[in-house]
Amino acid sequence: MWLSVSATTRSPRPGEVDGVHYLFTSEAEFDGLVERGQMLEWAVVHGRHRYGTPRGPVEQALAAGTPVLLEIDLQGARQVRAVMPDAHFVFLAPPSWEELERRLVGRGTEGPEERERRLSTARVELAAEKEFDTTIVNDDVSRAADELVSWMGLGPLTSR
Ligand SMILES: Nc1ncnc2c1ncn2[C@@H]1O[C@H](COP(=O)(O)OP(=O)(O)OP(=O)(O)O)[C@@H](O)[C@H]1O
Ligand SMILES: Nc1nc2c(ncn2[C@@H]2O[C@H](COP(=O)(O)O)[C@@H](O)[C@H]2O)c(=O)[nH]1
Q1: Could you tell me the residue ranges of all domains in the chain?
Q2: Coiled-coil stretches, from where to where (predicted)?
Q3: Ligand 1 mean position to 92 CA, how many Å?
């Protein structure tokens, strides 16, 4: 299974590595990817930064028969559904609203205003759960990953 690397115009957080966590691009570089048709999907997430899935690596993996896993927002999922109707869509849900808030605060990477923005996005996304083929509750990471792999009918998670 191949886990695709997204591009984003957001700045790296401490510890995030270009090409591993994201392809960190300038606004102009992201524009270029979009204008050249090199994005499978892209969206402004949390009303601020652009995030998108480069098309080339995904299409190459699929052509080689390798399943691809995208971890993208609701807007991106809707775009992928429009161009790849055979794709499968999993809604990754928090165990509770309170735990979602606790985890976001605990991550410690955003101030109160940005956290509120992200919680607003979460409210919108939670309301769209029924658009997805299944829901997996992210209570324990290992358990949720096992459930995902089992639902997909695949072996253990590997990347590139
Ligand atoms: N199952 C889990 N148990 C405990 N902590 C978790 C679990 N899943 C995620 N977290 C933690 O919750 C925080 C938020 O998770 P993550 O970074 O994946 O955010 P997200 O859902 O992508 O939201 P955002 O769009 O704001 O980034 C992180 O600190 C992450 O380590
Ligand atoms: N449409 C897309 N959404 C994406 C992509 N990569 C990530 N995401 C979404 O962005 C949020 C915010 O991420 P963060 O790293 O700033 O915390 C993340 O939760 C995803 O939902 C993508 O390629 N396309």
Answers
A1: 1-85, 88-160
A2: none
A3: 11
